[in-house]
Design goal:
2 domains, Aminoglycoside 3'-phosphotransferase, Chain: A, domain 2, 12 strands, alpha+beta
Length: 418
C-alpha cells in the first residue's frame, strides 16, 4: 500500500510509488480513537474530489494514475475530502440534484468520488454519527454512469455565476504543515521513519499521536484528531504516515518563544486551562519527565536539590506558542505523558518570559505557578531550558531563565524552612 494518501492526487507516478512502498495495511482511526478496519494488499491512495478533478477526468479518458494503478494490481483508495470548505461552496443543492436527485450536497460529493471507475475504496471522515451514516448511504448508492460523470466534470470546468471555478489542469503540489493556512485538503499528512521496534523514548515519540488519539479524542475540537495511520517497513527501516485534521488557523508564533505580547480573549485562556485540566486527569504510563533526569539536571542548572514529587499528572509536555492557535487548537502531541504537577503551565510560562504582560496573564490563569505544588515543575522546566542555553540554543531566554532560577532558589529555601 502507498503510505502517503496524497500520492496520486499530486502527480506521483504509479511506477515511482511501487518503487518505494510495498503492500502492508492502513488503519483508519475512527471517532474517539477506535480502529474502523484494516486493509491489506497492494493499494494506492489520493485525494479525488470535485476540486481535484484531474484523476476523474483522466480516468474517464482511460489514462492517468487510476487506470495505471489498476493495471499494476493496486486497489485505489480515494479520500473524499471537503478541501477546507471549498467544496461546500461549490456544490449546492442545484448541483447535487444534477448529480442524483434526493441526495444532500455532501452525499452527492461522496457518490461522485465513489463512482470514479478506477476507485475501489473511499476513505471518509465524519464529525458525527449521523454524518457518517449519510456518507455510508451515499457510497451504497448505485454508481453514477460515465456519461453522468462527464456531465458533472464539464459543468464544474466552466464558470458558474456565483460559484468558484474548479480547474481540470493538474494542481500544483501544496506543502502544508499544522497551523499554516493554505490550499485545499482534508487534513495534514506527516511521515516519520525509524528503526523497527525502536525502544524507550524513541518509541514514545513514535506512538505519541496515536496514543493521544485513543486517550483524548479531539478534546472538543481543541486537539486536531488523527484520522488515519499507516505503518510499513522497507529495508530495515520503519515508516509511519499519519493523517490529521487540517488546522486552518495560523499558530500564534512562528517561534516557540513569544516575541510580542498577545491580546487573547478571556475565553481563549479559560479554554486552554480547561483543556490542560482534562489532559492532566487522564491516566497513562507514558512518561514525559523522568525522576532520574530531575535528580541530575535540577541541581546542575538551578542549584537546588531535586524535589520529591508528591503529584504526577499527565501533561502535553510541549505547550509553547508555536503549538497554539486562536481559536484554540493545541498541536504536536508526540511527547505527552506523566510529569510533575503544573508542568504544562511552567512550559508556557518559560516560553513567555520575554513578554511581561502576557507572562502576567499566564501566572493569573495558572495559579499553580509560584505555589509550593508547582515548584518541582518550574524547576524542571527551568533546568531543561538552561541546559539548552548551555548548548547555545534559546539564548534570548538566558537572562530571564537565570532570574527565574534565582527566584526558585529563594522559594526552595523558604519551603525548606517551613
Amino acid at each position: 500500500m502507498v503510505a502517503v494518501p496524497v500520492a496520486l492526487g499530486y502527480g506521483l507516478q504509479v511506477g515511482e510509488i511501487l518503487g518505494h512502498v510495498e503492500g502492508e495495511g492502513l488503519v483508519d482511526v475512527g471517532p474517539g480513537g477506535g480502529e474502523r478496519g484494516e486493509r491489506r494488499g497492494g493499494e494506492a491512495g489520493g485525494p479525488i474530489s470535485l476540486v481535484i478533478m484531474t484523476p476523474i477526468v483522466q480516468d474517464l479518458n482511460g489514462r492517468g494514475p487510476l487506470p495505471a494503478a489498476g493495471g499494476a494490481g493496486l486497489r485505489v483508495m480515494a479520500s473524499a475530502s471537503l478541501h477546507g470548505g471549498e467544496l461546500p461552496g461549490m456544490v449546492d443543492q442545484e448541483l447535487a440534484d444534477l448529480i442524483r436527485p434526493g441526495l444532500t450536497p455532501a452525499q452527492a460529493r461522496v457518490l461522485t468520488v465513489a463512482s470514479c471507475p478506477g476507485v475501489t475504496d473511499v476513505l471518509i471522515s465524519a464529525s458525527s454519527a449521523p454524518h457518517w451514516r449519510q456518507a455510508a448511504d451515499a457510497v451504497a448508492q448505485p454508481s453514477l454512469t460515465t456519461a453522468k460523470l462527464r456531465e458533472i466534470t464539464g459543468v464544474l470546468a466552466s464558470p458558474r455565476p456565483g460559484h468558484r471555478t474548479a480547474h481540470v489542469r493538474p494542481p500544483r503540489p501544496r506543502r502544508r504543515g499544522p497551523g499554516r493556512p493554505g490550499g485545499a485538503g482534508r487534513g495534514v499528512l506527516g511521515v516519520g521513519r525509524a528503526h523497527p521496534g525502536c525502544p524507550g523514548p524513541n518509541r514514545k515519540l513514535w506512538d505519541g499521536a496515536l496514543d493521544a488519539q485513543h486517550a483524548f479524542g479531539d478534546l472538543d475540537g481543541h486537539r486536531p484528531a488523527l484520522l488515519a495511520v499507516h505503518d510499513s517497513v522497507d529495508d530495515g527501516t520503519a515508516y509511519r504516515a499519519e493523517l490529521s485534521v487540517r488546522v486552518d488557523q495560523p499558530v500564534l508564533s512562528h517561534d516557540p518563544i513569544l516575541q510580542q505580547d498577545l491580546q487573547l480573549p478571556d475565553a481563549w485562556w479559560t479554554g486552554l486551562a480547561a483543556t490542560l485540566e482534562r489532559v492532566a486527569a487522564v491516566s497513562t504510563d507514558r512518561a514525559a519527565v523522568r525522576q532520574q533526569y530531575m535528580e541530575r539536571a535540577i541541581p546542575e542548572f538551578v542549584g537546588i536539590p531535586a524535589l520529591t514529587i508528591s503529584c504526577w499528572t499527565t501533561a502535553h509536555a510541549d505547550v509553547h506558542w508555536a503549538n497554539l492557535t486562536s481559536p484554540l487548537r493545541l498541536l504536536d502531541w508526540e511527547g505527552w505523558g506523566r510529569a510533575p504537577e503544573g508542568y504544562d503551565a511552567a512550559t508556557l510560562y518559560a516560553y513567555t518570559l520575554l513578554q511581561p504582560d502576557t507572562v502576567a496573564h499566564v501566572r493569573a490563569v495558572f495559579p499553580v505557578l509560584g505555589s509550593p505544588a508547582g515548584l518541582a515543575a518550574e524547576a524542571t522546566m527551568c533546568a531543561q531550558l538552561l541546559q539548552t542555553v548551555a548548548r547555545g540554543d534559546n539564548l534570548a531566554l538566558a537572562d530571564p531563565l537565570r532570574a527565574w532560577s534565582e527566584e526558585l532558589r529563594r522559594r526552595f529555601v523558604t519551603a525548606s524552612a517551613i
